[in-house]
């Protein structure tokens, strides 16, 4: 499949916006301006971007504790996200959710989730609703390698398989569950192999190559829309930073880290864009400048927003 210039440039823009957002959050967290925990997506941008580039506003995603990239790729507004991370009343969840609980149901973002593996049954339920209502919508379910060991993963894939639900399960294999290397927590090299147990297609791709992710997701989305059921896509990738901000990641092998940094998905796509003459260095610099301005604006919005009122502490907690 030959991707158009517009598609490649649009995916580049998304990846740069995610990276810029995340590095700004890292800086603000280190400065003590962000309450709570943040788990950043730096290094994994090609996964959310390549998958979500196949989705429309009508489709759904479920996200994880490392969710900022998924939300931006699905069209979430960086201003409202930043305000939420700052715990402000103007944020996506009125400042009550923070980094790990951002949702925008209108955009099909069914929520980030602090419970590892909790998105899998939610995505499966959303897939059942899509099928039942004959909407032709699909659901992309993002989760980590660690989450593929949870019972929720196995139940979700089994049910989606027998009911032929339109769900794309996306395992973001960044090789670690916190500090636990993949070989210590599972006896298979490829999470994609687990698809065989449920009779669905499973494919492992280079998760740092946005084109490879895009193509695998395109096939899975087409299959889901046709009514042929779910797929599992494993994207092999690497988080550049610790598990959460503040984690010095002393468990990582420095040589392995250095080798993965050379496979950074953003410079890889830049090289491709320049090579294909789809962009000049000035065009790429312009994309970065726009992303920087957007994120600065988001920070200003968050910092100047009010903190939630104590009177609202119990609103939106339970359904009336
Ligand atoms: C059910 C549950 N068990 C344990 C935890 C603690 N915990 C938070 S993140 C994490 C590791 C998740 O690893 P993975 O699924 O690979 O995602 P990654 O952080 O690598 O993106 C764990 C065990 C949790 N949040 N929820």
What descriptors fit this protein?
320 residues, 7 strands, globular
Task: Please outline what is shown here.
This protein has helices at residues 5-30, 45-52, 68-73, 78-85, 119-132, 151-162, 182-185, 210-225, 254-261, 265-275, 281-303; strands spanning 60-62, 139-144, 167-173, 176-177, 180-181, 202-206, 231-236. The protein is α/β, with parallel strands linked by helices and 320 residues long. Helix 1 crosses helix 2, helix 1 (5-30) packs antiparallel against helix 10 (265-275) and helix 4 (78-85) packs across helix 11.
| Percent of residues in β-strands | 5-15%
- Main β sheet profile: 5 strands, parallel
Q: How far apart are the first and last residues' alpha carbons, in Å?
A: 49 Å
Bound molecules: thiamine diphosphate
Oligomeric state: single chain
Determine the structural class based on helices, strands and strand pairing.
Answer: alpha/beta
Q: What's the gyration radius in Å?
A: 19 Å
Uncertain spans: none
> Number of DSSP strands?
7
Order of helices and strands: HHEHHHEHEEEHEHEHHH
* Order of strands, widest sheet: 1-2-3-7-6
Could you report the average pLDDT, rounded to the nearest whole number?
97
Helix share, percent: 40-55%
Q: How would you sum up the global shape? A: globular
Supply the number of helical segments. 11
């Amino acid at each position: 499949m030959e991707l158009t210039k517009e598609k490649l440039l649009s995916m580049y823009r998304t990846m740069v916006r995610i990276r810029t957002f995340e590095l700004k959050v890292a800086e603000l967290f280190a400065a003590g301006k962000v309450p709570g925990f943040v788990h950043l997506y730096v290094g994994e941008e090609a996964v959310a971007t390549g998958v979500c580039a196949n989705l429309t506003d009508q489709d759904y995603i479920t996200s994880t504790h490392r969710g900022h990239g998924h939300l931006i790729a699905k069209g979430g507004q960086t201003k409202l996200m930043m305000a939420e991370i700052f715990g402000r009343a103007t944020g996506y969840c009125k400042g009550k959710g923070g980094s790990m609980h951002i949702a925008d149901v209108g955009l099909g973002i069914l929520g980030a989730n602090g419970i590892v593996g909790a998105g899998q049954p939610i995505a499966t339920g959303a897939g059942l609703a899509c099928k039942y209502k004959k909407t032709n919508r699909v659901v992309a379910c993002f989760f980590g390698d660690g989450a593929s060991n949870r019972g929720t993963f196995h139940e979700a894939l089994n049910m989606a398989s027998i009911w032929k639900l339109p769900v794309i399960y996306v395992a973001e294999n960044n090789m670690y569950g916190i500090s636990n290397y993949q070989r210590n927590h599972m006896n298979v090299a490829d999470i994609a192999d687990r698809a065989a147990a449920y009779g669905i297609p499973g494919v492992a791709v280079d998760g740092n190559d946005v084109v490879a992710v895009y193509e695998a997701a395109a096939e899975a989305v087409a299959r889901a829309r046709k009514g042929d059921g779910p797929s599992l896509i494993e994207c092999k990738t690497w988080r550049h930073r610790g598990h959460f901000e503040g984690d010095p990641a002393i468990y990582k092998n420095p040589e392995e880290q250095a080798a993965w940094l050379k496979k950074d998905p953003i410079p890889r796509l830049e090289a491709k864009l320049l090579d294909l003459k789809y962009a000049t260095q000035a065009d790429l610099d312009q994309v970065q400048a726009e992303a920087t301005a957007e994120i600065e604006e988001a920070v200003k919005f968050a910092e100047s927003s009010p903190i939630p009122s104590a009177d609202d502490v119990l609103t939106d907690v339970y359904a009336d």
